[in-house]
Design a protein that fits this description.
Helix content: over 70%
Number of helices: 8
Number of strands: 0
Structural class: mainly alpha
Radius of gyration: 19 Å
Oligomer: single chain
């Protein structure tokens, strides 16, 4: 897949997931915490929550494809650091996907418990799922932020891409790697998502890209 197309897909997926989360997932989550004893609320929210999870998994996958496309075009394959970046990308994506999958089961678990367990048990189960999901997501965001920042800085050092092209990606990466220290606060992630979408938009609107090896052209 070409880098420009990968950036367009990654930006569209991230924007869709972000908007859906702000408009749908956040109200659903807040309502579920206020009314943990209502079976109807859990059942009606299940598919909305599931759709949000799949949108975020699409965002994670497209982010992986974007980094792979950038490295394919501009990073020398034989370097140890390039191989390390690839491995770190896979590990972080795996953690993020697992974290999303755990979070997606929040309402499924609540739907099973409601009606058969006291309110305190249902609320405690929801808190446990949230804690596990946030822990795994924090680890994935830390590694994902590190590898995104690393790749952006690396390509600037190698003089492969202009500094201004890589700054938004590096900023989004730095904001993401702060997640273990800031979650469950998410304002930094909203800023990171906005900057990431702007970066994808900038790359996706290019008609051409700098040659990886201009001396050979």
């Amino acid at each position: 897949m070409r880098l420009i197309r990968a950036a367009r897909i990654a930006g569209a997926a991230a924007l869709a997931a972000g908007i859906y989360s702000l408009l749908v997932l956040r109200p659903v989550y807040l309502q579920s915490r206020q009314t943990p004893h209502l079976q109807g609320a859990a059942e009606s929210s299940y598919w909305q929550w599931e759709l949000g999870g799949w949108l975020w998994m699409l965002t994670i996958f497209s982010w992986m494809i974007l980094l792979a496309a950038i490295k394919h075009y501009y990073s020398p394959v034989h370097r140890i650091s390039t191989n390390a970046q690839s491995g770190l990308t896979v590990i972080s994506a795996t953690l993020l996907i697992v974290g999303v999958l755990v979070g997606m089961n929040r309402f499924g678990l609540k739907g099973i418990l409601v009606g058969n367990s006291p309110v305190e048990t249902v609320a405690a189960a929801g808190e446990l799922v949230d804690y596990i999901a946030l822990t795994i997501l924090a680890a994935g965001l830390l590694m994902g932020g590190c590898v995104t920042t690393w790749i952006c800085v690396d390509l600037v050092i190698l003089n492969k891409l202009p500094v201004t092209w890589m700054v938004p990606g590096a900023v989004a990466g730095v904001l993401s790697l702060l997640s273990p220290f800031l979650l469950p606060e998410t304002r930094h992630l909203l800023v990171a998502l906005l900057v990431y979408c702007m970066w994808c938009l900038f790359l996706g609107l290019r008609y051409s890209l700098p040659a990886a090896y201009p001396d050979l052209d």
